[in-house]
């Protein structure tokens, strides 16, 4: 091989997105100063796991990490995809952490893609698998991703600290996405949701639902929240419970939020065994999550704050057509995404506030991403 | 950075992409690097401060090692959605509210 031109970035921030964009744009990347000032320098287990996952999904990609893990060299290969892949995500971050880059990657794979992921299905740091099912996958359909072949099955659940959950994700491969004009957020016509409980009483779920309904009932009669109590091997290795809510609007937008309550992850070298913190009671969980959902609805915008990043990314990956979307206030992650998109894809958005509704309208011309490796049938 | 970013009069383009509108000052300049490791040696001797300084010209230069999570959790104080007045304030975002008002939002 001849010379490779590397793009240089610093720090572990947005590592997932940088690796994803690097792969899609076929730009080799060097990440430096990864937690170089920390007492525990270098890559974390979940970041290493993500790199291993990329190696699994792609052919011919090269990952080099220096001894301390503070410097990473990544040369992307061809996204192969394929069926029946398996990856253990570990327990330092939840499956949601891996799903976010993976669903976009899968779209541009050579073959339709299905993978079994093991680890934590629900935690409070990343969007949980229920939210992926209810909100993230429909979001992809907006961009012309076919519904068949796009699914996520939850085989067993697992919460921090020990995980034990398993899901199967399938993503079809597409030739290219379709640009969207998506500025009508519509009115909320129904609220759906699902609660789960693992290794605790199923009664926790009814309490959460009752509390959440109490908040919604004055606004909307059409509220239906399902329960998903898991026991035995399907309940993973740790006790926990949580709720994922989604508001569907008349124009087909999904606004979501979720919470998981469990004995959290131990951070790094923290001492184990101190008296376990009291967990938030299910009643408060239901009420708080419902309130957060209403705050998201109040924001306006066609997606919630959590999905802004993905929305911008998909817009930027469209063919060279104009996409126009409306969001509520820009989230910090959304802003970072916009910057990464500019750095890797060279797509700059035109961002205009809409004062009358306090929302933001973004416009961009896609980078013309095409899936060249996909076989035309 | 708080999400107060979208106040009407702030220039959002500037907030997101930094001051220079010339678009020609990417944060991370692409550099030629032949596969070898010679750059490793160079880096060893660059003073640390320098690296920090040019990290990003954006106004909200965050932590380089900020947590990588898309989930938005900084809601601040959440309104008490049990009170009648607060509920009425978003009534029109629901199908039970005033449809004409909602329609005018999307003009």
TrEMBL record, chain A:
- Cite the RNA 3'-terminal phosphate cyclase domain residue spans from the record: 9-351
> Which gene does this sequence derive from?
LOC115734399
Q: Which superkingdom heads the taxonomic lineage of this protein's source? A: Eukaryota
Q: Does the keyword Phosphoprotein apply?
A: no
Coiled coil, from the record = none
| PANTHER family, sorted | RNA 3' TERMINAL PHOSPHATE CYCLASE (PTHR11096), RNA 3'-TERMINAL PHOSPHATE CYCLASE-LIKE PROTEIN (PTHR11096:SF1)
Q: Which CDD domains match?
A: RNA_Cyclase_Class_I
Any transmembrane segments, and where? none
**Organism classification, top ranks?**
Eukaryota, Viridiplantae, Streptophyta, Embryophyta, Tracheophyta
**Subcellular localization:** Nucleus, Nucleolus
Protein keywords? Nucleus, Ribosome biogenesis
NCBIfam families linked = 18S_RNA_Rcl1p (TIGR03400)
Q: What is this protein called?
A: Probable RNA 3'-terminal phosphate cyclase-like protein
Q: Which family does it belong to?
A: Belongs to the RNA 3'-terminal cyclase family. Type 2 subfamily.
Listed PROSITE patterns: RTC
- Answer whether the UniProt record assigns the keyword Nucleus to this protein: yes
One of the Pfam families matching this protein, by short name:
RTC_insert
Which stretches make up the RNA 3'-terminal phosphate cyclase insert domain?
A: 184-298
């Amino acid at each position: 091989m001849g010379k490779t031109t590397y793009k240089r970035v610093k720090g572990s921030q947005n590592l997932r997105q940088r690796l994803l964009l690097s792969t899609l744009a076929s730009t080799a990347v060097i990440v430096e100063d990864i937690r170089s000032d920390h007492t525990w320098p270098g890559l974390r287990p979940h970041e290493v796991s993500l790199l291993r996952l990329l190696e699994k999904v792609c052919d011919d990609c090269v990952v080099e990490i220096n001894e301390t893990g503070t410097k990473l060299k990544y040369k992307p290969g061809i996204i192969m995809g394929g069926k029946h892949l398996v990856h253990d995500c570990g327990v330092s971050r939840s499956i949601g952490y891996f799903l976010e880059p993976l669903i976009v990657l899968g779209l541009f794979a050579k073959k339709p893609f299905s993978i079994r992921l093991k680890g934590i299905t629900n935690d409070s740091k990343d969007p949980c698998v229920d939210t992926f099912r209810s909100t993230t996958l429909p979001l992809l359909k907006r961009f012309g991703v076919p519904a068949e072949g796009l699914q996520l099955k939850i085989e067993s659940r697992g919460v921090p600290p020990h995980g034990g959950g398993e899901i199967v994700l399938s993503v079809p491969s597409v030739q290219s996405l379709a640009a969207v004009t998506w500025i009508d957020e519509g009115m909320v016509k129904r609220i759906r949701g699902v609660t789960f409980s693992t290794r605790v009483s199923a009664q926790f779920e009814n309490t959460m639902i009752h509390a959440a309904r109490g908040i919604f009932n004055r606004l909307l009669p059409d509220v239906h929240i399902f329960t998903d109590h898991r026991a035995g091997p399907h309940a993973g290795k740790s006790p926990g419970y949580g709720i994922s809510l989604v508001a569907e609007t008349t124009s087909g937008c999904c606004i979501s939020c979720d919470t998981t309550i469990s004995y959290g992850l131990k951070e790094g070298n923290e001492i184990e065994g101190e008296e376990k913190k009291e967990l938030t009671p299910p009643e408060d969980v239901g009420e708080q999550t419902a309130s957060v959902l209403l705050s998201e609805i109040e924001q306006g915008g066609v997606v919630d704050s959590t999905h802004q990043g993905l929305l911008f990314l998909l817009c930027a990956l469209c063919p060279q057509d104009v996409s126009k979307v409306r969001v509520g206030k820009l989230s910090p992650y959304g802003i970072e995404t916009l910057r990464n998109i500019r750095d890797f894809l060279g797509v700059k958005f035109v961002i205009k506030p809409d004062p009358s509704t306090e929302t933001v309208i973004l416009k961009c011309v896609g980078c013309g991403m095409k899936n060249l490796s996909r076989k035309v049938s | 950075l708080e999400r107060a970013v979208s106040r009407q009069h702030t220039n959002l383009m500037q907030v997101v992409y930094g001051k220079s509108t010339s678009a020609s000052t990417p944060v991370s300049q692409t550099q030629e690097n032949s596969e070898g490791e010679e750059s490793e040696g160079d880096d060893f001797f660059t003073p640390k401060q320098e690296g920090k300084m040019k990290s990003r010209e954006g106004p909200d230069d965050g932590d380089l090692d900020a947590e990588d999570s898309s989930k938005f959790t900084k809601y601040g104080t959440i309104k008490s959605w049990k009170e009648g007045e607060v509920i009425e304030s978003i009534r029109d975002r629901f199908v039970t509210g005033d449809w004409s008002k909602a329609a005018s939002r999307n003009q």
